[in-house]
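thought: fold this chain, then report.
action: predict
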Amino acid sequence: LHCVSSFTQWLSPDTAVQCFKAAIASISEDSPLPVRMTAARAIASLSSSSHTGTPLLSEDFLRPHVPMLLQSIAKLLENATEDSALITLEALHQVLKVGSKQAVVHMPLVLEQVLLALGRCHGDVMIANEAVETVETAAKIPECTAMAAEASAPLILSVLQQPDKFVCTMVESVLDLLAKIVRSPESGPYKGPLLDTVLPALVFAMINVSSDDLLQPGCDCLRSYLRVCREEMIAMGALFGGHTVLECYRLIILRMLQPDASEGCGVSVAPLAMQFILRCREEARHAIGEILAAAITRMDGANSLRLRQALCVLFARLLNEDLPATLGFLEQHDVGGERAVSIVMGHWCKDHRDFCGSYDVKVLTAALGNLLICGNPGILNLPVPGTYVVDVNEGRVTRSMSRAAGKAKTDQWTQ
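observation:
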C-alpha cells in the first residue's frame, strides 16, 4: 500500500482498480492502525489525477464507495496522531471532492472530526489549511452548507471571544474558515448562526481586541459578510451601544486607519473600506468623507510601500466608479494645510513604478487614464514626482555613511 501511494501516477487503470480494492479491504476497523493509515493515503492517491491530468479512477467508479470511505476515514481521523492527522485529512478531503448525494448522511461525523482535528492542531499551518479546505468543500455542497455553518460556529465563537488563548496561526485559520463558509455559494439563502451569533461576536472583537492576529484576518470576514449578507445586515437592529452593523463597520475602519495602528492593519482594512463605500454608498454616505480623510492622513504618514499601495488602490477604485464625487472631495479637503489631491497624487505618482499585482496595477492605471481624460486643470497642472534622477558620479553611499555624514541621502525627482 505504501508503494501504491508512491507510484500511483504510473499505474494502469486495471492495476489501479485492484489496488483500490485492496486499500478498501485494509481500511476496515479490523486492520491495525498503521495499515489503515497507509490504506487511507493510498485511497487519496488513487482518487486523484494521474500524471496526464485525467482521473486515474472515474468518479462513477468511486462514487458508490464514498459513503463508506468517509465514515471509515473520519473514524480513523479520530484516532490520528499529530503526525498522521495531515495524511488522514488529505485522504478525507480527496474523497469528499468526488461528491455523492449519499455522503450527506455521514457529513455530521466528518465535520465533527475535521473540526476537532483543527481545534487540537495547535496552529500547525499544514493541518489547519487542510482542515479549512475540507470544511470549505463540504460547505459548497448545497445540502451541507447549513450543517457546516452550525458545526463550525462553536469553534469560531471560542476564538472570537478568547483569542488570547489560541496561537496566532490558529486564530488566522479559524477566521479564514469563517470567511470561506460565508462566501460559499449556498450560504446566501441560509444565514442561521452566521448572522445571529457569529457576526455580533466578530464585530465586538474587531472593535475591542487589539491583536493584529485577529484584526487582519477579521477584515476579510467582514468583507465576506458585506458581499453576501448586505441586505440582512442593513435590516438588523442595534448591536452594541446603540450602533447598527454599518455604524460598527465605520468604527472598525476608522480604528484601523488611525496613525497608531499597525501598517498591517492599514493594508488589511483598505479593501474593506473600499467595499464598504461601494456597496453601502447610500446607507453610509455620511461616513464616506470621514473614512477618506482618515485614509489620506494614514497615507501621508505611511512608511511601507504596501500600505501606500493599498490606500492608492482604494482611491483609484473610487475614482473609476465615481470620478466627479471622489475628485471633488480630494480637491476640497485639506490635511495639515495641504490639499488632499496633492498628497494622494504625490505618493501615487512617486510609487507607481514600484506597485505590483496585476489587479492593483490595472485599477491604478485605469484611474490615471480617467484623470487625464477628464481634463481637470487642477490635475493636469499638479506637480508630482516624475523620473527618478540618478547621479552617476555620486558613487555608492550606504545608510551608515549617510548617518556618519550627519544627513540622509535625499532622492531627486524631475517634476
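thought: worth noting. Residues 237-386 form one domain.
final: C-alpha cells above.
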